[in-house]
C-alpha cells in the first residue's frame, strides 16, 4: 500500500511518500524549521516561507517529498515537461522532471519530481538509490 501524507499552508501542499524515502536527511539539514523527523508530525508547514519549502523539496534526492501549488493559475502548479540530470558528488544521479523507467523485464514505471538512480552499484533497489553509497563511502 502506497502511503501519501499531505501538509498544507493554504498556498502550497507538501506531499510525502514514506516508502520512497532513502533517509538522506537533506530535508532536515536544509530546513529543520519545517522538516524534523524527531517530531510528530515531522513536517511543520508553518515553519518557513513557501519559497524556502519549495526550494528544499526540490533538493530531495529520492522524490519522497513533492509539492503542489494550491493556486491552479500558478505555473508552478503545472507539471514540468523539462528534465534535468544532476550528478551528486559521492552520491546518486538525480533526474528532475517526468520520465518513464523501464526495468529489465520491460515493466514501465512513471516518475515525476525527483528520481535518484544508483551510481555506486551497491543499491538493493536498483536502478534506484537506497542510500548505500553513504555506508560504503562511495567516491565518484
TrEMBL record:
Alphabetized UniProt keyword annotations: 2Fe-2S, Iron, Iron-sulfur, Metal-binding
Residue ranges of every copy of the Iron-binding zinc finger CDGSH type domain listed in the record: 90-139
Any one cellular-component term (Gene Ontology): cytoplasm
GO MF: 2 iron, 2 sulfur cluster binding; metal ion binding
Keyword presence, Thylakoid: no
Keyword Iron-sulfur: yes
Name of this protein: Zn-finger domain of CDGSH type-containing protein
Species, as recorded: Pseudarcicella hirudinis
Highest classification ranks of the organism: Bacteria, Pseudomonadati, Bacteroidota, Cytophagia, Cytophagales
Amino acid at each position: 500500500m502506497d502511503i501519501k501524507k499531505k501538509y498544507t499552508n493554504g498556498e502550497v501542499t507538501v506531499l510525502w511518500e514514506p516508502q520512497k524515502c532513502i533517509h538522506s536527511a537533506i530535508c532536515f539539514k536544509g530546513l529543520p524549521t519545517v522538516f524534523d523527523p524527531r517530531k510528530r508530525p515531522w513536517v511543520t508547514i508553518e515553519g518557513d516561507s513557501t519559497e524556502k519549502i519549495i526550494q528544499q523539496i526540490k533538493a530531495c534526492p529520492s522524490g519522497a517529498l513533492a509539492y503542489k501549488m494550491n493556486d491552479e493559475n500558478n505555473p508552478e502548479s503545472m507539471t514540468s515537461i523539462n528534465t534535468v540530470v544532476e550528478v551528486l558528488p559521492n552520491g546518486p544521479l538525480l533526474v528532475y522532471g517526468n520520465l518513464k523507467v523501464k526495468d529489465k523485464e520491460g515493466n514501465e514505471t512513471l516518475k515525476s519530481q525527483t528520481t535518484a538512480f544508483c551510481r555506486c552499484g551497491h543499491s538493493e533497489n536498483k536502478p534506484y538509490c537506497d542510500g548505500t553509497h553513504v555506508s560504503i563511502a562511495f567516491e565518484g
